[in-house]
Automatic annotation (TrEMBL):
Pfam family of the protein (one): PH
The organism of origin for this protein: Durusdinium trenchii
Signal peptide annotation: none
Name assigned to this protein: PH domain-containing protein
PH domain segment(s): 4-116
Taxonomic lineage: Eukaryota, Sar, Alveolata, Dinophyceae, Suessiales
Amino acid sequence: MEEEVLLSGWLEKRLPVLRDTWEPHWCVLRQSSLACYEAERECSVPKLELRVLKWAAFREEDAFGDAQLHRKTRPCGFVLDLGTDVPHAHQRFVHFDAATEAQLQRWLEAFQAVTRGTGGGKWKEDEVKDVDGVW
C-alpha cells in the first residue's frame, strides 16, 4: 500500500558539486521520505529519495550547510540535513528553493508534521557537529 502524499510541488534543488546550479524537481513528501522527480508525473523510480531528519530555512541565522551563501539570492530556500548515514559527507545537506514565501511555509510545516515524534525536526545549532569540514 502506497503512503499518502502529504505535499507535492515544484522545488529547485541545488546540485551538490556545482553550488550555483539549481534544477527544478517535482517533489512529493510522504511520511517516510521526500521523493524528487524530473517531471510532474511521478515515475516508477524517483531521481532522488531523501529521508528528512532536520531542516532549516536559509533566512535563519544558524542555518546549516551552505544556507548562508544562498540567503540573499534564494530568500525562500531551505536546507535538509540527511544525517551522517550518507555515502559521501558532501551529500549530508541538500538545498532547495521554494520560489515563494507561501510555498516555503507549506514545505516547512509539512516537514514539521513528518518529523514530529521521530526525534527529527527543526534544526538546532547544538545538535549538528562539523562532519569532515562539510559546513
